[in-house]
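Reviewer 2 asked us to include a model.

Predict the structure of this chain.
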Amino acid sequence: MCGIAGIVYQKSDLDPKDIVKMTDLIFHRGPDDFGHYYDRNVALGHRRLSILDLSDKGKQPMEYRDAVIIFNGEIYNYVELRKKLTGKGYQFHTGTDTEVILAAYDAWGEKCLDMFNGMWSFLIYDKKKAILFGARDRLGVKPFYYAKIGNKFCIASEIKEFTVLDGWKSKGNKNRIYDFIAFGGIHDHTRETLFQDVFQLCPGEKLVYDLNKDTYTIDRWYDLREHIKHKSKLGDYKKDFKNYFLDSVRFRLRSDVNVGSCLSGGLDSSAIVCIMSDLLKETNGGDKQQTISACYPGKAIDEQEYIDEVINKTNVVSHKVYPQIERFLEDVDKIIWHQDEPFGSLSIYAQWEVYKAARDNDITVLLDGQGSDEYMAGYASFHKVYFRELLCRGRLIKLYRDLKRYKDKYKDYYYSPYRDLLETVIQRVIPWGIYDRLKGNLKKMRKTGIIDTYNDGLYQRMTAKKMSVREEALCEMGCSSLPKLLHHQDRDSMAHSVEARAPFLDYVLVEYVMSLPSDVKIKDAVTKNLMREALYGILPKKIQCRYDKLGFATPMDEWIRQNQELFESELTKGLGALGEFLDRNVILKKYHEAIRKRTSLAEFFRYVCVGRWIKVFHISL
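Predicted model (structure tokens):
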């Protein structure tokens, strides 16, 4: 896990200081080493966080035959690929996955991407072809940004790297800012960013820059939708899931530094810790696994009873952190600076504290549970979609039974699905777009104080009724949830020089689960049923039978109310900075009403965070 920087000078002389400034700014991504490379009008820079082969041989930029690479991420199957390439006559002089990427590129060209199992963003300078070849991993775990700044075409791991270059202007992208404030913190769902004229490769995209022509092309090399194979025969899906998951965790234990795990007490992190504990006992002579947990004693969201269940079962070494609003107020600008873009909740701060504790305890690699909910039907929204799917497929008896089971199992979190099902029937007669306009949802949005300044289709994608669990999962994976979660995870972990690995985002596992029918993922109205059944006996029973879902929650509302005067001052500043997007009076009225009625204050935190972001990065709108 590292940081990359690249510049192509177009009709201007190469300035070595530029790439040095870029890499100096992201010291946190790679405090162990750095390197720079210059040739013709190309400058490459790298910051190294040493994970594999800790010797100087792993230094980047790394050269191999006619190619030079800067690489951020991990190729987990590098051992298997190295054996395959050795059989083809290739020789290796390091124990790194970086050298394997270069050999694979030499052997298979751009098709090498299909061979990799991992997370990555890399840039290869092919001197023979006079091209730059860059790529981002299938699901977008690692970031890849690019921008045209003056006569320079620039590539970076973090947007802030561009801010040190001559010609940079911090302009806000109004459309993406609108997305963020209107749709609950959604961002990272397009090539655009919240900075004007700064772009990113989307998950599964590649970039080829022709140095002779000074032009570049971007193409998709992987599309999850195209790799989902509908299974006509299930077979032993519980056994298959367990084996795929075991392989994924086993791959992500490959490291020459300490590996630990996040532990929240939910299904996902608990599954990783339990599997990881068993695997470590097999491979390292019984050395104990270390976990990091965020806890809130005395709060309704505290999950220590579940965390302790896993600790007692696995006998791990547990480290607990206790996030406090005072520390957040001290670090808020620092967190925003590391995130590059505003964030929608204080869960990002809780995650920040977890990764800080990992670094403090000399844990350089941390396994995290991101990604499972999005394709294993873990969110409450999947219930609605599943009931719609049963209705549309005419499975009315099963629908009736599952509605009853849902009410019994989730009585404390119950929502009435009947209006939604009625709307689904109407939608079969009236197209959703027309029905949506008849309901006047866009006008309702204006009444919230958010001014509808544009519409690029995100609203339709977010609100359109999904008629299958698979379609909802694809939306969560590519648009509404996973992209922003991975953005936050990367920045929080890298801020503390920790590598975050996500076993649930192994593409083999994702493709397999996505191919399974909905009944496997939601059974008897229980979400994430597949994982519960497949890991029976591995998970503590209290975790396996847990039906509530907190996410990575913080007592945000309580903290805001405890600092109400300060928060309202920050809210007023944020609203002032966002004047053209919001009706300030409407928002403040809503805020005072929420304070009085003690309802959620999450919406108002977004306005505060955007205001602080504008200040930190000197954004002009």
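The mean pLDDT is 91. The longest helix spans residues 267-283. We have added this to the supplementary material.
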